[in-house]
TrEMBL record:
Name under which the protein is recorded: SufE family protein
Cited PANTHER family: SUFE-LIKE PROTEIN 2, CHLOROPLASTIC, SULFUR ACCEPTOR PROTEIN CSDE
Highest taxon above the source species: Bacteria
Domain Fe-S metabolism associated span(s) in chain numbering: 15-138
Membership in a protein family: Belongs to the SufE family.
Pfam families for the chain: SufE (PF02657)
Length: 146
């Protein structure tokens, strides 16, 4: 997938980060952490449906849903005391919402490295976001195979 083919909302998020000075990128990440959507009630009552992202230091759980129109929705939880992780989860939740399965599967695996945070946060944290994207794709492939 070339830069022009990156879904519009992910391209916009990346542009927003890259337009900022390094020190301001963390502030934008913190703003994303405050915008992580709440879980729908159907998942709040069934945490067993969520998958833990073991690569993240903080307890992060995700669930990918595909509706009847083949539209993807990513739901995630991360504790408020882990704002970097919450920010990454929020970027993916906002960036993937409304895409179709093929669009999500075509997102470059290195998208988390492309948003300009590799100098602002530890490689371990970037690895966590990469793992969230990877697990999302794996869940979608598993659904397609079923």
């Amino acid at each position: 997938m070339t830069e022009q083919q990156l879904p519009a909302q992910l391209a916009e998020i990346r542009e927003d980060f890259l337009a900022l000075e390094q020190r301001d990128r963390l502030q934008l990440l913190l703003e994303f952490s405050n915008e992580l959507p709440e879980l729908p009630e159907r998942y709040r009552d069934h945490p067993d449906l969520l998958e833990r992202v073991e690569e993240c230091q903080a307890p992060v759980f995700i669930f990918v849903e595909v509706d009847d129109a083949e539209t993807v929705h990513l739901y995630a939880t991360a504790p408020p005391e882990a704002p970097t992780t919450r920010g990454f989860a929020s970027i993916l939740a906002h960036g993937l919402d409304g895409l179709n399965v093929a669009e999500v599967l075509a997102i470059p695996d290195d998208y988390p490295q492309s948003i300009g945070l590799t100098e602002a946060v530890s490689p371990l944290r970037i690895r966590g976001m990469t793992a969230m994207l990877g697990r999302t794709k794996r869940q979608l492939r598993a659904r397609a195979a079923a």
